[in-house]
Amino acid sequence: MPLLKTDDESTEIESLLKGIHERYGYDFTHYSQASLKRRLNRVREHTKLFSYPELLERLYQDEQCFDLFLKHMSITVTEMFRDPAVYLSIREKIIPILKTFPFIKIWHAGCATGEEAYSMAILLHEEGFLDRARIYATDFNKQSLETGQAGIYSSKNMGTYAANYLAAGGKKNLSDYYSSSYDLVKFDDFLKEHITFSYHNLVTDGVFGEMNLICCRNVLIYFDKVLQDHVLSLFTESLRHGGFLCLGSKESLNFTKVKKMFEPVDTKYRIYRMTEALHV
Amino acid sequence: MYEAVVMGLSAGGMNVLKTIIPALPATFPLPIAIVQHIAPSSDGYLAEYLGQISAIPVKEAEDKEILRGGTAYLAPAGYHLLIEANRTFSLSIDESVNYCCPSIDVLFDSAADVYRQNLIGIVLTGANADGSKGLKKIKEGGGLAIVQDPLTAEVPYMPQAALNATVIDYILDVSQIAPLLARLGKVGEGENNVRSIS
Fold first, then answer.
1. Does pTM top 0.95 for this prediction?
2. Containing domain of residue B167, as a range?
3. B198 in any annotated domain
4. Where are the beta strands (DSSP E) in chain A?
5. What is the pLDDT of residues B67-126, one digit of tens each?
């Protein structure tokens, strides 16, 4: 790959992102630049279009190429019961409060292929109130959403997931919730009945209302401060008063504009409760 | 004048960090970003421990944190650590690179983009080739490359891979690294003074 001077490269990347925003409405201009650049490099290697202007020209004209670009730009790394201690904390500290509601809504924002949504469904089932819950799992990667909707995953990760599940306070065996055939597993349909997979772009789309709990884990790290603040204020508008927000283990509300609206429930595992209503 | 130090370690790295970081003077002026390959479940103990025995502050790097001179930052377990153009850290959970997350190459690559010739890259003991691509890029950008002498490394594979990948400025025993960094940091300050006087 030709080595560009950093300043020239930044300018070219800026033009590329602006062009994409104009043509397709997807706005990546407030993504963290360093990892964005690594993603762009993958697109350039895949398409063999190493010059940014040439890449933009192709993306402008070729929607299939843009689909490929989108796939590379979305974060698809996820796992079931990722950071088990977080799920244990949700089980112990949040669930008892949520149980007092007749019906609850949970939003997994940036759900990728849906593993965390299924994890949540299993947790709610074991706590005995999945029937009183609706889980919304959203992402901008349509292919990821299709995977989540199908509930079919590779069996090769199930060993890790099963260990995570038990560490997260699982009461049975993870394998009680899926059937295997060859190298695939399919999660039971009763879980999926309580999950709605739908398209939502955190950057450009609006409020997703009246949530009791929003889980958005390891998504904000990909955004710059401006976009982080934008998305967090979207969350404050989408949460019910007293609702909970669960971030990734290395994400926090420190130094964000919405910090004073929340109180920490579990500082270590970055679980917060919204105590102050918006516009007060 | 140098602006930052990046450092990569794998197997055998704990002992090396225990030698280098506490040997740096409290006045050391540069930020140091460190990737030590570590189990995903580790929870920041290493930074706490190193901080207790060192003259400079040591902490786990946080997302969007500004790099401060004279502070050592460790990549959190399970996250890639990157440096942005505005001299802040960012984290990612993207795919493993060289089977590693955090990956040394990812840190070095992003740091080389930002600091160019003002960067010092150091590859130390380890059992895989992570870091050699990144160190090559640092050299190509005009930065300084330091490698632990494979003959004295607990696990020589990683420093040897770096040696094979690019031209190295210093091949050193672990005990020589902190004194060299202290000197290079001072040189930077001296140049800076001269510049500000003229």
1. no
2. 4-193
3. no
4. 104-109, 133-139, 152-154, 178-181, 184-187, 195-199, 211-216, 239-247, 262-266, 271-274
5. 999 999 999 999 999 999 999 999 999 888 888 999 999 999 999 999 999 999 999 999
A35–B63 CB contact, under 8 Å: no
Q: In the structure encoding, which two tokens stand for residue B166, read together? A: 């690019």
The pair of three-digit structure tokens given for residue A123, joined into one six-digit string: 């947790």
* Average per-residue pLDDT for chain B: 93
Q: Which of A37-41, A252-256, B138-142, B184-188 has the lowest mean pLDDT?
A: B184-188
B182 assigned to some structural domain = yes
Smallest Cα distance from B75 to chain A, Å: 11
Mutation target to probe the B interface, by most B beta carbons within 10 A, among A36, A77, A252 is A77
Instruction: Note whether residue B44 is domain-resident.
Output: yes
Taking contacts as CB-CB distances below 8 angstroms, the residues of chain B near A252 are 62-63
Q: Which of A111, A86, A88, A13 is nearest to A55 (CA)?
A: A13
Task: Write down all domains in chain A, each with its CATH number in brackets.
Answer: 6-73 (no CATH), 84-274 (3.40.50.150)
